[in-house]
């Protein structure tokens, strides 16, 4: 079995302020395909704040409102996942972690035992930050950092980040027409890791920099990360299911 973590950003999961159900279904179908092809899959999903906003439109620029929206939206998000996973005969589960879980060896072990047990029973763990007690990812990172920690501490060989961008480019492709995709990256430099943060919309808090930091962390742990489009899953499918690297960026030391 190959263990992978898939992280999906809020921009991919939401459209016009609501959960993008078709994209969520495509993601669930991908996970189902992976599971029948010898993969163990852990999902790290954003989207709780957006799901909450569809129920109660609080001002998202206030952090406490975002926490409240996440608390409202998380059960809605999970309900939607449950419905979709059940159409593929799969159970899913909710695992809320605060960022400091990984600061404690004991808490990390407890969490890993639970994750291992879920996976051994063919259940898909859906991880999110516990935003009522820990706001690091809510304010900054959109789960990019959390997913890198999940991949390392829960012993996955690969983190797949499904983003609104289909790869890492030599410059921002939304600003420069001549930006070129970097297919494989084996080292990241300080200036790339400390560049200005460029979140793309009001729900996105990470931008490319937090993804590069996630990749850097994993490469230093001898693990890999694959960045690909969450809007069109063809690249991630061919990479994981056919071992063909057509699009996307593989970060591997
Ligand atoms: P998500 O919400 O999917 O996690 P973000 O929108 O936070 O993703 O971050 C991806 C965005 O980062 C892209 O849409 C792009 O505009 C921006 N970006 C800046 N520089 C680059 C680069 N060199 N390569 C790819 N994307 C970049």
Lay out the secondary structure.
Elements: E1 2-8, H1 10-13, E2 14-15, E3 18-19, H2 21-35, E4 39-45, H3 48-53, H4 63-87, E5 92-97, H5 105-120, E6 124-129, H6 136-139, H7 144-153, E7 158-163, E8 184-185, H8 190-193, H9 207-220, E9 224-229, H10 234-242, E10 249-251
Parallel strand pairs: 1-4, 1-7, 4-6, 5-6, 7-9, 8-10
Antiparallel strand pairs: 2-3, 9-10
The structure holds adenosine-5'-diphosphate.
Adenosine-5'-diphosphate binds at residues 9-12, 142, 163-165, 168-169, 171-174, 198-200, 204, 206-208.
Please give the number of β-strands: 10
**CATH superfamily label:** Acetylglutamate kinase-like
Strand content: 15-25%
User: What is the approximate shape?
Assistant: globular
- The helix tally amounts to 10
Alpha-carbon Rg, integer: 17 Å
Quickly give the CATH architecture: 3-Layer(aba) Sandwich
Indicate how many domains the architecture comprises.
Answer: 1
Bound molecules: adenosine-5'-diphosphate
- Unreliable runs: none
Q: What is the averaged pLDDT score?
A: 93
* Main β sheet profile: 8 strands, mixed
| CATH fold assignment | Carbamate kinase
Distance between the termini: 22 Å
CATH hierarchy class name: Alpha Beta
Category by helix and strand content: alpha/beta
Strand order of the largest sheet: 5-6-4-1-7-9-10-8
Q: List the helices and strands in order.
A: EHEEHEHHEHEHHEEHHEHE
């Amino acid at each position: 079995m190959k263990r992978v973590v898939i992280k999906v950003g809020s921009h991919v999961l939401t459209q016009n302020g609501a959960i993008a159900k078709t994209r969520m279904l495509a993601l669930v179908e991908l996970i189902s395909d992976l599971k029948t092809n010898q993969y163990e899959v852990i999902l790290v999903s954003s989207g709780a704040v957006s799901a909450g906003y569809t129920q109660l439109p609080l001002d998202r620029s206030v952090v406490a409102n975002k926490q409240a929206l996440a608390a409202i939206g998380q059960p809605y998000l999970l309900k939607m996942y449950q419905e979709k996973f059940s159409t593929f005969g799969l159970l899913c589960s909710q695992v809320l972690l605060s960022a400091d879980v990984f600061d404690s060896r004991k808490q990390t072990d407890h969490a890993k035992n639970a994750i291992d047990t879920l996976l051994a029973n063919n259940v898909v763990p859906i991880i999110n930050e516990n935003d009522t007690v820990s706001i690091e990812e809510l304010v900054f990172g959109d789960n990019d950092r959390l997913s890198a920690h999940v991949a390392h501490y829960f012993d996955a060989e690969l983190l797949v980040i499904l983003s609104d961008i289909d790869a890492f480019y030599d410059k921002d492709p939304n600003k420069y027409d001549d930006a070129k995709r970097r297919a494989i990256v084996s080292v990241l430099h300080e200036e790339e890791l400390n560049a200005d943060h460029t979140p793309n919309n009001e729900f996105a808090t990470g931008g490319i920099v937090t993804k590069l930091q996630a990749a850097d962390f994993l490469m230093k742990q001898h693990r890999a990360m694959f960045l690909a489009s969450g809007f069109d899953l063809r690249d991630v499918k061919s990479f994981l299911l056919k071992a063909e690297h057509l699009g996307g960026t593989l970060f591997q030391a």
